[in-house]
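agent> Task received from the user: take the single chain below, predict its 3D structure, and emit structure tokens. No templates, no multimer pairing.
agent> Plan: (1) validate residues, (2) run structure prediction, (3) serialize to tokens, (4) report one or two observations.
agent> Step 1 OK, no nonstandard residues flagged.
tool_call: predict_structure(input=
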Amino acid sequence: MTPARQFLSAAVAVFTISMIAAIPGSHVCYCQGLTRTRVEVLVRPTLDSLIAKEDTDGDKKITIDDPHVPGTDRGNKRFWITSLDSRKYEVAETYYLSNLLQSLKLAEDEGKDTVWLDGTRIFEPPVQHISESIKDLYWDGLTRRIDEGGLQNIFRDTKTRTIDGYNYVYVPHDDSMAYDYFSGIAAKRADFKMKVVMLPAKITPKYVESLNERAGILSLKLVKSPEGKIEGAPFVVPGSRFNEMYGWDSYFITLGLLENGRVSLAKSMVDNFIYEIDNYGKILNANRIYYLTRSQPPFFTSMAMAVYRYLPRDTATTAWLKEVLEAAIKQYDDYWMGPEHLTWTGLSRYYDDGIGPPPEVEPGRYNYLYAEYGKKCGMDAAKFESDYLSGKLKVPALDKFFTDDRSMRESGHDASYRLQYDCAELVTVDLNSLLYKTETNIAEIISDGFGGDVKLDNGKIEKASAWNEKAERRKKLMTKYLWNQKRGMFFDYNFVKRKQTDYMSATTFYPLWAGLATKKQAEALVRNALPLLEMPGGIVGSTQESRGPITKDHPQTQWDYPFGWAPHQMLVWAGLKDYGFGKLSRELAYRWLYTITINACNYNATIAEKYDMVNRSSQVFAEYGNVGTKFSYITRQGFGWTNASYAVGLTYLTKKLIEGLNRLIPPEWVFER
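)
tool_result: status=success, residues=673
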């Protein structure tokens, strides 16, 4: 029996059978609804004893990977607490022991010598425990600001290291308040070793490249209180290793925040994006200097509309909606429909006009390329890299690779073999679905918020009808270039080679979420695409066939088979539900939430960046750094859009399905096909 199945058997027993042991001198607390006991214990001694006995692999967590030490009781997943009045209380099984560990660590962090442990918290059902952790702990743990308090953490980040040892803050050319504020911090905080740079009015790729060795943070919105205090508008980052605000992550995070009642924080994130569009010309991949040459998938209007539904209908909200509209149209016209993104097809592409390899990648990522090209030039990899990056060598094929690689990163799907080698040549299903949604959102804002037409600050009159016409035109073009009638799916289109690709990706479902697919197209997608992409854990990023075999020259990529990500799940659920496939959306939501829940129970409340959809595992290949699994004792963050998917996913489930999730009943035992 696998560890997960062993846990499942124990958990089902715990939740279905009343088990309070009548052992002299002991009080065993097991069942939710029966745990009335509160136990006062010493914090540090109990914590030390628990770790010494049950953390047998030394990672300062209690997981199913902690092996039992033969000939001892270490790692046997049973621990006895001794209360201050010398009574003994047993806690058994991985999930409950990790809950105990979290309670003790939180108490220690609060400076407590003793704590009253609440049995209802230690033994609460996993859905409740995870949901409350997200709502009450994880969102705060992921919240950041670009101000004096926030800079203290930002400057510890290895991504801020520069050639001269200074920490750089960059501000827009006409934001004098930001420049004065950050300059004041630099003057009084010598320990920050900080330099403030005002950006030029015109930012070119060459200028951005010149700053690669002086990488720094870009300012976001500052808010001045009536008393004159200045603070950064707060935002939520994807995971604990991040200190910058990311583009498409923020949309999904916002949905989770709204579900958890954090409307003000969600609105603040929209405000930061308005600032980015107004000052940097677009929503950035993230607010770091080297991201000035690219955006990320355009979810801005959907994000703002989601927040708008929670706001009061008053003059302040109308004024805010006007700001949203102005920013959305600016980014749409100047960026996504600008000359570098709009193609001859009438559809848009992802494109980053930055120069050379993207600076944010992990060291050594392109060594295989430099070795390959160096061999052709008769030099070693290090010499080739040096000469190429300095401009001594001109290699057009490698220039093209980096353009495609950077453009792939604008898509958010970095990396995927769908986009790796020709992204800049593709008009993709995902981007054009998002732009269709942007067009319909803008029409809706103008119609519902301003009566059908509105005068912008530049004097231009915008009409809802005109934006609906734009959307209708895009729908027709997508059907022409991206819909494959024979296969009954949407595929990307290579406008250079003038043919569709055949890469089977979860993005084929984006038209359902955007509402542009016909009913017949939706039925075809469910019939043809869903069987290929549905796995035990939910929707997988691509098919195994499309990804191809993994070899030294064709390494694993994180947005392809067998991995699944929160945004794909959430978009597919919503799309299926909107087209009348409610049962399917519930089942897929259950599959994903079960995957999160079983892994959180087995791995000390870990909520990961992505999961292996075939094996329902969080123990996966990590393409970039920390993916939400590297912490000691207790996670205070989870992972942003995965947190959100849990909060949103529960709204798709009935009470009976939530009960099944609490009992860790796998989906194949719940749903019939």
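agent> Step 4: summary for the user.
The CA atoms of residues 218 and 642 lie 26 Å apart.
agent> Done.
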